[in-house]
Amino acid sequence: MHYLRIITLFILLTSISAFACAQESKSDRYATQFQAIIDQYHLRGTILIFDVAQDTFYSNDFQRATRGFLPASTFKIPNTLIALETGVVTNANSILTWDGKKRNMKAWEKDLALKDAFRLSCVPCYQEIAGKIGLSRMRQHLSRFSYTGMDVRKETLQNFWLVGASKISAFQQVQFLRDFYYRKLQLSDHTYNTMLQVFEIESTPSYSLSGKTGWSTDHGDNGWFVGYLRSGDSIYFFAANFEPKDASKVEDFLPAREKVVRQALQVMHAFEEKN
């Protein structure tokens, strides 16, 4: 009986060791493949993906994934949630009225529904939203969200996510997305359900992809793509942060943010692009 226990323990330890080695091998393989994709687009940065089924993070650069950067337009996610919860806007089709003044993008120079302002990353639309939310309510909700690192003051209320000292890391982005998805943010069902509509990029019979890009220039070009992918019973949360190796090629850098993440998810067999 004593020998049988020893043999059983040996088999168990061997199995655990083999599983750990397999996981380590997969992690290393994904890291190499993620980095190759980033290099292909002439970027520097990190892709962080959390596979819920495996309860595992994968990345090409875990150290960079802990570094904080301006959230830029990824802040439109919490900004929209707070606006919905406080009644500043009421639904995905709430109209944000253009004041007739010239804006940096022609697509912003018209009245926009909330879902379109989110998709088009309308900066002045969301600056107006932040102003209507106000300093006290903005701070209160960010604290409830554990959305730390924001330099929210009276002077910065309408631009703290674009310029200055605010910082968020890829790990923090993923945690916030998980808290949102699993409804841990103490928000109404109406707010959650509306945000799910606003957040979704595309949906097919085999997968749905939700996400938001971001781009700041205050400390050099820095770009984000954050969100989650549902594929069958699997869910993958992601946060990618990049900067261009060549600052003169911003026109290539901007679309590359999303392309890199899509290819990284394909490497993991998370989904296949629709035709």
What does this molecule look like?
Helix content is 43%, strand content 19%. β5 (200-203) and β6 form a beta hairpin. It has 275 residues and is an alpha+beta fold. Strands 2-1-8-7-6-5 form a 6-stranded antiparallel beta sheet, with helices on both faces. The chain has a single domain, classed as DD-peptidase/beta-lactamase superfamily (Beta-lactamase). The N and C termini lie far apart (61 Å). The protein has 8 helices and 8 strands; from the N terminus they run αββαββαααααββββα. Residues 1-20 form the signal peptide. The active site is at residue 73.
Order of helices and strands: HEEHEEHHHHHEEEEH
| Amount of beta strand | 15-25%
Counting H and I runs of at least 4 residues, what is the number of helices?
8
Task: Please give the alpha-carbon distance between the first and last residues.
Answer: 61 Å
Q: Based on helices, strands and strand pairing, what is the structural class?
A: alpha+beta
The whole-number mean of residue pLDDT values reads 91
Quickly give the CATH architecture.
Answer: 3-Layer(aba) Sandwich
Major sheet: arrangement of strands: 2-1-8-7-6-5
Biggest β-sheet description: 6 strands, antiparallel
Helix content: 40-55%
* Dominant shape: globular
Q: What oligomeric state do these chains adopt?
A: single chain
Indicate the radius of gyration in whole angstroms.
21 Å
Q: Structurally, how many domains make up the residues?
A: 1
Under CATH at level 1, the class stands as Alpha Beta
The low-confidence parts are 7-22
Query: What is the number of E strands?
Result: 8
What is the CATH superfamily?
DD-peptidase/beta-lactamase superfamily
The CATH topology label is Beta-lactamase
